[in-house]
Amino acid sequence: MSKPTIYSIAQRCGVSAATVSRVFNRPELVSPRVREQVTAVARELGYLPNPAARGLVTGRAETIGLIVSDITNPFFPLLVRSIQRTAERMGSSVMLVDAEESAAAEVRHVARLRGRVDGVIVASPRSSSAALREAAKGLPCVLLNRPLRDLSSVLCDNTSALFEAGEHLHKHGHRSFALLAGPSASWAAARRSQAIRGWARGRGVELTELGPFRATFKGGRQAGAALLETAATAAFAFDDLTACGVLAELAGRGVAVPGDRSVVGCDDVLLARTVTPSLTTVTAPMDDLGAIAVQVLTRQIEAPGGAPEHHRLPGVFVARDSTGPRSTS
Amino acid sequence: MSKPTIYSIAQRCGVSAATVSRVFNRPELVSPRVREQVTAVARELGYLPNPAARGLVTGRAETIGLIVSDITNPFFPLLVRSIQRTAERMGSSVMLVDAEESAAAEVRHVARLRGRVDGVIVASPRSSSAALREAAKGLPCVLLNRPLRDLSSVLCDNTSALFEAGEHLHKHGHRSFALLAGPSASWAAARRSQAIRGWARGRGVELTELGPFRATFKGGRQAGAALLETAATAAFAFDDLTACGVLAELAGRGVAVPGDRSVVGCDDVLLARTVTPSLTTVTAPMDDLGAIAVQVLTRQIEAPGGAPEHHRLPGVFVARDSTGPRSTS
DNA sequence: AGGAACAATGAAAGCGATTGCATTGATTCT
DNA sequence: AGAATCAATGCAATCGCTTTCATTGTTCCT
């Protein structure tokens, strides 16, 4: 009993393999009688088309690659889920690769994926633009949170939400702020810093820039320590993970949040809600980010060499417990 | 300029395609002169073997499937990373699928993966044993945190670590305990409950069983609320996520940890260190779990129908700040 | 020197699907 | 009725690679 193929089915049904193939791909070309018989036999034999064989002739793997810069960052799970869901709906599987925060690994993995997938999504790449461009040459590719003229991209833009965050803090009486910058290789970090600087300048408030810090809990603790050396009463952390580090550091030193200092994060990952105090942050539209990325990629795959698309989704400010009135010291 | 194949290379080198193929698969069979020439031309042309074509004849996809019950659970990222790393070392890619906590989805995905992968790892399955057995029929498969006689499994056994946790609490003067049980479909939950019951009985201390609660932050809050209705001064939460919920609930009600109550988690996920107070918990040997799972799977793939292997790795107790002396009320 | 053993290579048969083209009746049109 | 059209199906080539078997020189014995 070897694995059933279109041939074994064809034989059992007294038709040709071509007909069996058509039953699955272009059923309208096959007479209802034959169609049903083939379907029945296929089910009975537990037939499953061989993806390798199919892929060999169609040139499609029905699979997309997803490279994330660091899977342990709580930002990704929801994104992965959303991408997976959308891909599945389009009939594709997802090959996930964790680059473990290494730019070199990102590029290496794109190369390795080539041929096994129809296209790739690179989420929050750390690689240089040139490296990415080179690595993606001739391979449908969508960048997440990294703009690049000649490659499609889907970005989450938190500028306006960060403005709101600023206003929220300002209303609470804060006048002196700290910007805890994220990794310099991250576009999101640069973008957020820029937004906050812009807001502070426009508002005419004092802004102390610290960092860059790594986008990890530890990086956050360092940021927290640095923060305490300034007079800032409110701080913008690069993301929620960093913010949690800040919170932990402050708590460890007996500094009350939001009593003594206010902290805002970014991304609204699970952590943001579970930490105490819960984080005031900016919610990223994960579901849409993932879904759009897959859709764009699908388009790129179907029309290779088409013009790159660029999408930009806004984050949403959400106030929780890590921000409050300025301490009256 | 279409994609280079072994034929284009063969032509350029004045040899046959078979020779080119051998250069990549059995280089010792090819004369050094030819070997080098082929390698050079291949590099020059940017040749990459077509995995579909290769897979068609070898019957191998060089890919393993990884099904996780819920990718948003912080337990998984490190596991995924470890599995990925090991798989890569063995020359395989990983196809990740998130079952979104649905038992039905797990089974469905195993079916969908069949043919695209050489074998699957199912992590913390929620499906019934019968369903799993059926779904994995004829497909190399390794279960993570779920024992099943006829399927290979890799388990993390926290029994002795939980004993230690109990002793640790006992030393701090606790005499009345609560067991906040996890989801009933989870083997780990059952196992942990059993361990704790065993310890309490042996120690002759009072143990109140509560739950089952869902393995989510919310479930933890409910558990926390339930805990407060008992006189227990120390609680064993199912996992860290639940424990964090408990912590949040207690904090919200002004109950001090570890001042009023002590809490221990399990798994030692990132969260455990980031939450305040940091969680006393049991560290799961993620790296080993993942690595062993892949190795076992590889063996199953190479010798299909071989006897299933069963591995059991112990967790390690680690004391942090969520446990302390019994309150002197 | 004649044959055995061996190293290096090529020819060709698949692997399991898809798909363009040809074939065959049946139906419709004039 | 004969031509044209069309629906249903089969034939056979093809995708790119691996692998068995056969072939051809070389080298090594005795």
Describe the overall structure.
The model of chain A has no long low-confidence stretch (mean pLDDT 94). In chain A, α1 (6-13) packs across α2 (17-25) and α8 (159-171) crosses α9 (187-203). The longest helix of chain A is centred in the middle third of the chain and has 17 residues, at 187-203. Chain A is α/β, with parallel strands linked by helices and 329 residues long. In chain A, 45% of the residues lie in helices and 17% in strands. In chain A, the strands form three sheets. The first copy, chain A, has a six-stranded parallel β-sheet, with helices on both faces. Chain A has a four-stranded parallel β-sheet with strand order 7-6-8-9, with helices on both faces. In chain A, strands 10-12 form a two-stranded antiparallel sheet. The first copy, chain A, is elongated. The termini of chain A are far apart. Chain A is built from 13 helices and twelve strands. Chain A binds chain B through residues 48-53, 55-56, 61, 63, 71-72, 74, 76-78, 80-81, 84, 93-98, 100, 112-116, 217, 241, 244-245, 247-248, 251, 270-271, 273-276, and chain B through 48-53, 55-56, 61, 63, 71-72, 74, 76-78, 80-81, 84, 93-98, 100, 112-116, 217, 241, 244-245, 247-248, 251, 270-271, 273-276, 278.
List keywords for this structure.
homodimer, 329 residues, alpha/beta, four-stranded parallel β-sheet, DNA-binding
Helical amount of chain A: 40-55%
| Unreliable spans of chain A | none
Radius of gyration of chain A (CA) equals 25 Å
Straight-line N-to-C gap of chain A: 82 Å
What is the approximate shape of chain A?
A: elongated
Oligomer: homodimer
Average of the residue pLDDT scores of chain A: 94
Number of helices of chain A: 13
Strand order of the largest sheet of chain A: 2-1-3-4-5-11
Secondary-structure-derived class of chain A: alpha/beta
Tell me about the biggest sheet of chain A?
Answer: 6 strands, parallel
- Name the chain pair whose interface involves the most residues: A-B, 44 and 45 residues
Beta content of chain A: 15-25%
The helix/strand series of chain A, from N terminus to C terminus, equals HHHHEHEHEHEEHEHEHEHEHEHEE
Total number of β-strand segments of chain A?
A: 12
